[in-house]
Amino acid sequence: MSEKNKEQFIKRNKLGILSVLRDLKKNNTLIMINHARGQFISRILEVDSDSNQMLFDLGGVEYENKLALEAQSLNFIAEPAGAKVEFSCGRITETLFESLPTFSCEIPAELYFIQRREYFRVNIPLHAAYTCQGKFDDENNFDLKLKDISLGGLGLHVDHPMSLPIERGATIHNVTIDMIEFGSFVLDIEFISAFERPTINNKGETVLQQRLSFKFPHLSATQERDLQRAIFELEKMQHEKARRFQED
User: Fold this and answer.
1) What pTM did the predictor assign?
2) Is 248 inside a domain boundary?
3) Contact 31/78 with Cβ under 8 angstroms?
4) Three-state SS for 15?
5) Are residues 131 and 239 part of one domain?
6) Beta-bridge partners for 190
7) Tens digits of per-residue pLDDT, 103-119?
8) What is the CATH number for 15?
9) 162 three-class SS
């Protein structure tokens, strides 16, 4: 979304901002926090309007927490049900909350609350063994590679285009999405579309490949939280691999 289009979703009213942050805390919503030297996953622990401070979890790696403390600014992204929330803060400090170390920052002066769902989508390398397995209505099983995934849905990769025994809007129940180290998920998916495109294989030959697009018709709060964590962790892993590649 362009900055111009995002302006219609900005909140600057203090009470409105506090309401959004407290909902994130109440629902234990995961938050991806980015800064110039890294990123980590967190959640809001407390929103204190009197001190104008927001408390949030440290990351799971001590070195990442050190980098976050040194950062001049941090960006927060959360995707609660039906919306996307974005905001930033300046330097953070480390304090205690319920006798445990935590981060603290000023409550943001402005916040984007994007009610029109625009999910963060992470692309998946074809060499990764992440798959989606299920059964079409004609009882034929399928086992296809994940091409990309978000909280909104997923794309599947087909090496050799096939005739599909499914129509737009049809739901396939209880497919298994296997993301190996990030977990396995049993969900329903609704078919959106399929399209073919030419590509060059490793032999230099032009071949047709197919992409199947599905959306998640509904996710429970638990499914959404667990899937969001997997997506965040996958994006974080890819970011770290890209950074190491640039450093080599």
Assistant:
1) 0.61
2) no
3) yes
4) helix
5) yes
6) 171, 215
7) 999 999 999 988 755 56
8) 2.30.110.10
9) coil
